[in-house]
Specification:
Mean pLDDT of chain A: 88
CATH class of the largest domain in chain B: Alpha Beta
CATH superfamily of the largest domain in chain B: Periplasmic binding protein-like II
Radius of gyration of chain B: 21 Å
Low-confidence stretches of chain A: none
Distance between the termini of chain A: 33 Å
Strand order of the largest sheet of chain A: 1-2
Mean pLDDT of chain B: 90
Largest sheet of chain A: 2 strands, parallel
Strand content of chain A: under 5%
Largest sheet of chain B: 11 strands, mixed
CATH superfamily of the largest domain in chain A: MetI-like
Number of helices of chain A: 22
CATH topology of the largest domain in chain B: D-Maltodextrin-Binding Protein, domain 2
Number of domains of chain A: 2
Oligomer: heterodimer
Structural class of chain B: alpha/beta
Number of strands of chain B: 11
Structural class of chain A: mainly alpha
Largest interface: A-B, 55 and 51 residues
Low-confidence stretches of chain B: 12-17
Helix content of chain A: over 70%
CATH architecture of the largest domain in chain A: Orthogonal Bundle
Number of strands of chain A: 2
Number of domains of chain B: 2
CATH architecture of the largest domain in chain B: 3-Layer(aba) Sandwich
Chain lengths: 533, 338
């Protein structure tokens, strides 16, 4: 009992320390910069961010929930394909989708040129509206991030016993009624959890919004740091952002308190899928295809166009080394992060440790810290640790891979945690009770009872984290050791100068590497139907 | 397995023993720079280790690494970035006579903390079909505020440091009040909300979305070289470049520059590296690959030479860009320059 109380706590503290360092700026002095910000720009930053978050939330909920419901409850044209392909856009980082969007839809973008060629139109004819605005940003985030909602919501729908829905039918509900009165409310914790991830990633993004010239809270943070030379105020701004997100987090938890969404019913029945035919089948297919097309196929097409235009040597040493680095770091961090989330969640459940639960939520909001600000917290933490623990003379961990792994884990703990947490929500407490009656305690309970039941969630955690790490840029850029490149870094080298034709190859490689874990994930999704019945 | 270990062991040991290296923190991320570093290693046998990132973030890392920092050289674009490191007292003075003989005093730090390595100018690109010779004749940054430019100008966002330095130089020259009035008028004259990078502004002029773009000089070189694809080459041919303020203060010039850090573990190698950057050979590579203007006396790339060789430069305020940068940002915020 002792180890399970203290150990996860001690480990969690290490990861929380850099976040605390960022927060500690709130207790420092407040500079004149604040007067300027409040008078001229803060209202704009805040309102733009709110507008963006609301737009993206509506977007991902419509796409994520609707597609998840369709593929779990209906049989239609291409359903087997959509079931797994719907998560593919997760392999496209929002900043890359943003770059390809301007490449396609700017006045002289490839899409507009194509339309002109197709219909033999004048050179000044522009079909597609400009994407360099907030609407464009909402579209980009919605179509790259909806899979987070799709993934969790789908598994929630899968776990809804058809007996509940049948009862609904008997009480006179139609198909829409079953969806809106039974399935949707029951899946609420799931899609809210997915939505939280989406909101955090949207708020912490810099690359995509900066490219679209949309001034959000986060671009304001960087402007304050880079331009006004006021890092302290920048950190205070980030802390405020985190506090707001933290508040959301707790409100959401609070609203769930006392409501049990776990299915204790031992007579679980898989739902029968309804067969759709004709126009209905076609419409549903179309609606499922659209997000894959916009969020995955379209950017890939544009990247290929650029790559063909570039005439660069493909497989030079730099490219191979950075691919190797990307893959190794991705897998390493994925496994570490999944273990961390599993241990912490087990410990919370096993020792009924509410405080650790709060720490876990706190660590989750690390997802929302802009990468560069997190890097500042980490550098300070590492230098402190080096000076006080390892050596006065030389750096042992500062400037090593430790910093990178730390950053990745803090940035993606939320992904691992949400997956492990929802896995635990599905394990009934009665299983624990029986296991403990039979003498299973501590690591035996975790290893022999929970882990086998959690295998899918555990793997999902690894894969989600891996695909996220592959995409990460800002923290990598500043924390990496000498001569250490990842694909995202190489992409940035070119993209920063908008040399997209050269950025295309490494971008494609990011997508390809990111797809591998997603394909595993897809396989698991397909087999999860059988496994969980 | 044993073999693998011994190889790793040997390589770790020898690295500690030979230690012929120089560690560079850079915010320049042109791949032509990689070729430069390779060239330095070939010439001297000294390995160049690189960390690249945003200038401000690298500075933060330097500050916290303190006396233990492994960095020898800070290499960056924009004089403001150099000023920040200088202000923190993180540079040591450059002593090399070779460097001094090539770089004029106004392109070095006040106490030789840093030196310029290459120059770029912030110039105008215009559509000759839509802009009259009269309008171009005595054109200046200041004249962009005139009413004849209403809805005709494109320039990128005020988040960009090149714009920040330009505004800082105008503050140094004309004072804050006058510059603010200028910025407000410029915003009124914009053809569209600021968006995209410098190259996107040139493209906008080529495509007829605007008549005049403000952008850095080297972009046109990259576009004209054809390495950036056929679209950009064609676009570049449609525009003309002109240097502003030729009758008055000269065109705004910013620099790529570098300095040796105070706690540099390899100061001799760092010094060699600085001299290397200013050698004719490297200056020529920079001119040909990144299309910057050289500090040493080497010929321009053919692309840049075709657009004018001699122009009047405004070097007067390079040292003040950093100091005035926050004032420039606040001014642009007040003027509504997004």
């Amino acid at each position: 009992m002792f180890t399970w109380k203290l150990l996860p706590f001690a480990v969690a503290i290490i990861f929380i320390a850099p976040i605390i360092i960022v927060f500690s700026s709130l207790f420092g002095t407040y500079s004149d910069t604040w007067n300027h910000l409040i008078e001229f720009v803060l209202v704009d930053y805040v309102s733009t961010s709110i507008f963006l978050v609301i737009g993206v939330s509506i977007g991902v909920l419509i796409i994520g929930v609707f597609t998840a419901y369709a593929v779990t409850n209906y049989n239609f044209f291409g359903k087997k394909f959509f079931e797994w392909a719907l998560i593919l856009p997760l392999a496209i980082p929002p900043y890359i989708l943003a770059y390809t969007f301007t490449g396609l839809f700017d006045a002289n973008g490839d899409a507009n040129v194509f339309v002109r060629l197709l219909f033999n139109l004048e050179n000044n004819f522009v079909l597609f509206p400009s994407v360099r605005n907030i609407t464009g940003a909402i579209i980009v985030f919605s179509f790259t991030l909806y899979p987070y909602v799709y993934l969790v919501t789908r598994s929630a729908f899968l776990n809804q016993s058809s007996s509940i829905k049948e009862s609904g039918r008997l009480l006179g509900l139609g198909q829409v009624g079953v969806f809106s009165k039974i399935s949707l409310p029951l899946a609420r914790p799931a899609f809210i959890a997915g939505l939280m991830l989406v909101i955090m990633e949207t708020l912490s993004d810099f690359g995509a919004v900066d490219h679209f010239a949309v001034q959000t809270f986060t671009t304001g943070i960087f402007r304050t740091w880079y331009g006004l030379y006021d890092l302290n105020t920048a950190m205070q701004l980030s802390s405020l952002l985190l506090m707001i997100i933290f508040l959301f987090y707790f409100l959401e938890r609070f609203s769930r308190e006392g409501v049990n969404y776990t299915n204790d019913n031992s007579t679980f029945k898989t739902s029968k899928e309804l067969n759709l035919k004709g126009v209905k089948s076609g419409l549903v297919s179309f609606f499922c295809f659209l997000p894959i097309f916009i969020g995955f196929i379209l950017p890939i097409i544009e990247l290929i166009i650029w790559a063909l235009d570039a005439r660069v040597t493909l497989f030079n040493e730099k490219f191979i080394m950075s691919s190797f680095n990307t893959i190794t770091l991705g897998i390493l961090t994925g496994v570490l992060c999944a273990f961390l989330a599993l241990t912490i969640n087990f410990s919370i459940r096993y020792t009924k440790n509410n405080f650790l639960g709060k720490l876990s939520s706190f660590l989750s909001i690390g997802y929302a810290i802009p990468g560069l600000i997190l890097a500042v917290g980490i550098t300070r933490f590492l230098v402190f640790a080096d000076r006080n623990i390892f050596s006065d003379l030389d750096f042992v961990i500062t400037g090593s891979l430790v910093g990178l792994v730390l950053a990745y884990i803090i940035k993606s703990y939320a992904l691992a945690n949400s997956s492990i947490e929802s896995g635990y929500e599905r394990i009934s407490n009665s299983i624990d009770n029986s296991a403990r009656l039979l003498g299973a305690r501590g690591s035996i309970l975790l290893g022999k009872v929970h882990f086998p039941l959690m295998k899918t969630s555990f793997l999902t955690a690894i894969l989600l984290v891996t695909s996220e790490v592959v995409k990460e840029l800002p923290a990598t850029l500043i924390l990496r050791p000498f001569n250490f490149d990842t694909l995202a870094v190489v992409t940035y080298t070119y993209a920063a100068e908008e040399r997209m034709y050269q950025a295309a190859m490494p971008s494609l490689a990011i997508v390809l590497i990111g797809i591998v874990p997603l394909i595993f994930l897809s396989k698991m999704i397909r087999s999860s139907r059988l496994a969980e019945t | 397995m044993k073999k693998v270990f011994s190889i790793i062991l040997i390589s770790v040991l020898t690295q500690g023993l030979i230690a012929k290296e120089v560690n560079v923190y850079t915010s320049r991320h042109y791949d032509s720079d990689d070729a430069l570093y390779q060239e330095f290693t070939n010439e001297t046998g000294i390995k160049v280790n690189i960390i690249s990132g945003k200038g401000s973030a690298l500075l933060e890392r330097l500050k916290f690494e303190g006396t233990n920092s492994p960095a020898d050289i800070f290499f960056t674009v924009d004089a403001g970035n150099l000023w920040k490191v200088q202000k923190e007292g993180l540079f040591q003075p450059i002593k090399s006579k070779k460097v001094f003989s090539k770089v004029p005093i106004n392109l070095r730090g006040p106490n030789n903390e840093w030196t310029a390595v290459a120059k770029r100018s912030r110039v105008f690109f215009y559509n000759p079909k839509k802009v009259s010779a009269d309008e171009i004749k005595n054109i200046s940054y200041e004249s962009l505020a005139n009413d004849n430019w209403k809805d005709r100008i494109v320039i990128r966002s005020s988040n960009n440091m090149y714009n920040q330095s330009l505004v800082a130089s105008l503050i140094a020259k004309n004072g804050e009040k006058e510059t603010e009035a200028w910025a407000k008028a410029l915003v009124r004259n914009l053809a569209r909300k600021p968006q995209g990078n410098d190259r996107a502004q040139i493209m906008a002029v080529a495509n007829g979305e605007a008549d005049l773009a403000v952008a850095n000089s080297y972009y046109i070189g990259i576009m004209l070289s054809g390495n950036a694809g056929i679209d950009q080459l064609n676009a570049a041919k449609k525009v003309k470049m002109t240097f502003p303020n030729q009758k008055t203060s000269g065109a705004h010039v910013n620099i790529s520059g570098a300095g040796i850090l105070k706690n540099a573990p390899n100061p001799e190698n760092a010094n060699l590296f600085m001299e290397f950057l200013l050698s004719d050979k490297v200056q020529e590579i920079m001119v040909k690959k990144s299309y910057e203007y050289p500090i040493a006396d080497v010929p321009l790339s053919s692309e840049m030479a075709s657009l004018g060789v001699d122009f009047k430069e405004d070097n007067s305020s390079v040292k003040r860009f950093g100091e005035l940068n926050p004032a420039a940002i606040k001014l642009m915020d007040r003027a509504g320059w997004k």
